[in-house]
Amino acid sequence: MRHLFIEFLTQLGSADRAHDIDHIERVVATARQLGKREGAELAVLEPAAWLHDCVSVAKDHPQRKQASLLAADRAVEFLQEINYPSQYLSAIHHAIVAHSFSANIRPESLEAKILQDADRMDALGAIGIARCILVGGKLNRQLYSSIDPLCVDREPNDDVYTLDHFFTKLLTLGESMQTQAAKAEAQRRSIYMRDFLVQLQSELLTQE
């Protein structure tokens, strides 16, 4: 069914390059891997992963917090259109609604927990750094504060500085992982991100 999902998603487009088809394919792959380890129902998990961003709302859009609900509703409509087994639709809807950080909805099912983990994993590590900078550029945010780039003596403000998003969200994601396999991988990727910040600081210090 991969071709059906890709065709559907390609027609819809995405709000930014950080949430494009490459992001979705990574989330699907991670979700499938975690799902097999945890014994999840793949008939729920895989469609939910494919369609979790099928309604893409920009980070600065007033409906941002409703994006996962809008995506879940549209996903169920699409699955009904292709005659996907109806017994899975409610679980798919919940998994998509609960995956979002912005929505702040507690995932109740194993599949919802895994989808949330898989989506958050894509915000960590080298991919996470690249995606963060992509979004910051699209929103025309300054890369970092020249006065205090690592938020040592100030509150982070990711509405102004892209790298402040590390401190407001990204470096906290590891603690929110639901499955043990995801927690271990998130810790590894978070270490890489912290090392990136150390390297950034060292490069900036050489300019003083």
Could you characterize the architecture of this molecule?
By secondary structure, this protein is mostly helical. The protein contains 9 helices and no strands. The protein has helices spanning 2-12, 21-38, 42-51, 67-81, 89-99, 110-121, 125-138, 165-168, 180-205. α3 (42-51) crosses α5 and α6 packs parallel to α9. The longest helix is centred in the last third of the chain and has 26 residues, at 180-205. The relative contact order is 0.12.
For the terminal residues, how far apart are their CA atoms?
55 Å
Strand % is under 5%
Task: Report the radius of gyration as a whole number of Å.
Answer: 18 Å
3D shape: globular
Q: If you average the pLDDT, what whole number results?
A: 92
Point out poorly predicted stretches.
Answer: none
Largest sheet: none
Note the total helix count: 9
- Broad structural category: mainly alpha
Query: What helical percentage do the residues reach?
Result: 55-70%
How many E strands?
0
* Quaternary structure: single chain
Query: How are helices and strands ordered from N to C?
Result: HHHHHHHHH
Describe the structure using short key phrases.
208 residues, mainly alpha
Q: What does the secondary structure layout of this molecule look like, with pairings?
A:
Layout (H helix, E strand, L loop, with lengths): L1 H11 L8 H18 L3 H10 L15 H15 L7 H11 L10 H12 L3 H14 L26 H4 L11 H26 L3
Helix pairs in contact: 2-3, 2-6, 3-5, 3-6, 4-5, 5-6, 6-9, 7-9
